[in-house]
Design brief:
This protein is an alpha/beta fold and 489 residues long. The chain has two domains: 268 residues, 3-Layer(aba) Sandwich (Rossmann fold); 194 residues, Rossmann fold, CATH 3.40.50.2000. It is built from 17 helices and 17 strands.
């Protein structure tokens, strides 16, 4: 099968969040299964160009219609760790993708609307006829709209579109002017059953357009699929998802075990697996040496990831305070896009700077994250909402017990050791539901109780975690089934 991914990100060259990992990991798995996959992305000036092999210009005269003029684009091709990628570089006065950052500008919607038109124009001009176009998040929501509204009449009638929603908090709401810029009829598409935003009748919603016009819509876990239809996590799109429920489903993301695997991880001093799980404790000692923590018979509880309100910042801080109160050790590695949150955690770092049981690293260090996963005993993930979550799946591969809030993909991957209805040998962590200090502390207390009082059972839980398969193997098969389904429609 010939598949074209259209995405704003791919790991590791253009990565803001989990979307980038999904595009890379899923593409890789689909190729392993014998499919041809190409990925179309913007050519940002801030990409990690040293991670792109053989980058060269392959199309210099791509003229893209834009409002009442044409914008010339160059298209580059290169391999991102084996993935075949095309990068679109517009020669526009506005320098759409030469901003030094991936997102965060007042005209983000305009920038990515143009990218959608340019991606389809490139496919049209070069005669690409994939079996499936797979689009990702609001930035590519106009692709199926443009395919239906313009390009199918030009001969691109064959492709079917699979559209994946990664995070409904960001939807791409804008005015009719954006439709006019990319050549779409505003009167035709600004309707309540098409792109009109459900809460602001004067606005259009690019993500809604992607949902309405695509052949199938997925999101990144079964529980998040339920959450966004039946709770405020849908941010206003619950009704349109209900209307189109016949073509909607949740598929749990996977993780790349070539990168996240303690048996082969080059970033940790002692490699281990189920057969030599005791070597995890050698990595615990190495982590303590690295971070100048005292050597003592106590658990290390960690937090790894982005520090923002979605991730439950107030509960992350409480996990720190409660760990110190109980005499445990606490390690945090994370950064925040919010200046206020960054200052709060820098203040905490200074306050605990001399504490031999605490280390806060307010940055992101990929190599250090591997060592923390390998050396910590437990990880806290108290998210307010979590479409999928990769952190808990990575931690489990390293035998680090997750303590999570039961939402989204966390509910689909972590099963409470005390209360789950799963068989005991399938229970792999601790789950709490209320976003309160008390609920978090109760879960942490239960986890520490198992660590101190039932060490053999704790070791068995570590093995259970490692034994779970959260690779891309199963998700890729689900996506291939969807591709086959929509090709037959």
């Amino acid at each position: 099968m010939y598949i074209v991914m259209i995405s704003p990100e791919i790991a590791p060259v253009a990565k803001v969040g989990g979307l980038a990992d999904v595009v890379y990991g899923l593409s890789r798995e689909l190729e392993i299964r014998g499919n041809s996959v190409e990925i179309i992305l913007p050519k940002y000036d801030c990409m990690w160009y040293d991670q792109i092999w053989g980058l060269q210009e392959v199309f210099s005269g791509l003229w893209v219609p834009y409002f009442e003029r044409w914008i010339q684009c160059s298209v580059y091709f290169g391999f991102v760790h084996g993935r075949k990628c095309f990068f679109i570089d517009p020669h526009a006065d506005k320098s759409f993708f030469n901003r030094g950052v991936f997102y965060g500008h007042y005209d983000d919607v305009e920038r990515f609307a143009f990218f959608c038109r340019a991606a389809l124009e490139f496919m049209f001009k070069t005669g690409k006829h994939p079996d499936v176009i797979h689009c990702h998040d609001w930035q590519t929501g106009l692709v199926p709209v443009l395919l239906y509204g313009i390009y199918q009449d030009l001969g691109m009638s064959h492709p079917r579109v699979c559209y994946t929603l990664h995070n409904l908090k960001h939807q791409g709401t804008t005015s009719d002017h954006t439709l006019l810029e990319v050549g779409l009829d505003a009167a035709e598409h600004h309707r309540i059953d098409r792109l009109q935003d459900d809460h602001n009748p004067s606005a259009i919603n690019l993500m809604k357009g992607g949902i309405v016009y695509s052949s199938f819509v997925t999101t990144v876990s079964p529980m998040y699929a339920w959450d966004i239809r039946h709770s405020d996590q849908g941010y206003g799109l619950g009704h349109v998802l209900h209307t189109h429920q016949g073509k909607f489903g949740g598929i749990l993301n996977g993780i790349d075990y070539d990168i996240w695997n303690p048996e082969i991880d080059p970033h940790i001093p002692y490699r281990y697996g189920i057969s030599n799980i005791e070597d995890k404790y050698k990595n615990k000692a190495a982590l303590r040496d690295r971070l100048l923590l005292r050597d003592a018979l106590k658990p290390i509880i960690c937090v790894i990831g982005r520090l923002d309100n979605q991730k439950g910042v107030h509960l992350i801080k409480q996990a720190l305070f409660y760990s110190m109160h109980c005499g445990w050790q606490f390690v945090l590695l994370g950064s925040s896009p919010d200046h206020v949150i960054t200052e709060e955690f820098l203040h905490l770092k200074r306050a605990f700077n001399d504490n031999p049981d605490c280390h806060l690293e307010i940055s992101y260090d990929d190599a250090l994250s591997h060592l923390i996963y390998a050396g910590a005993d437990m990880i806290v993930i108290p998210s307010m909402f979590e479409p999928c979550g990769l952190t808990q799946m990575i931690a489990m591969k390293y035998g680090t017990i997750p303590i999570v809030r039961g939402t989204g993909g966390l509910s689909n991957t972590v099963f409470d050791i005390n209360y789950s209805d799963k068989p005991e040998h399938e229970r792999n962590g601790y789950v709490f539901y209320e976003a309160t200090n008390e609920a978090l502390e109760h879960a942490m207390h239960r986890a520490a109780g198992l660590y101190y009082e039932f060490p053999q059972r704790f070791r068995e839980a570590m093995i259970t975690c490692i034994d779970y398969d959260y690779s891309w193997n199963n998700p890729a098969q689900h996506y291939l089934s969807i591709y086959d389904f929509i090709r037959e429609k």
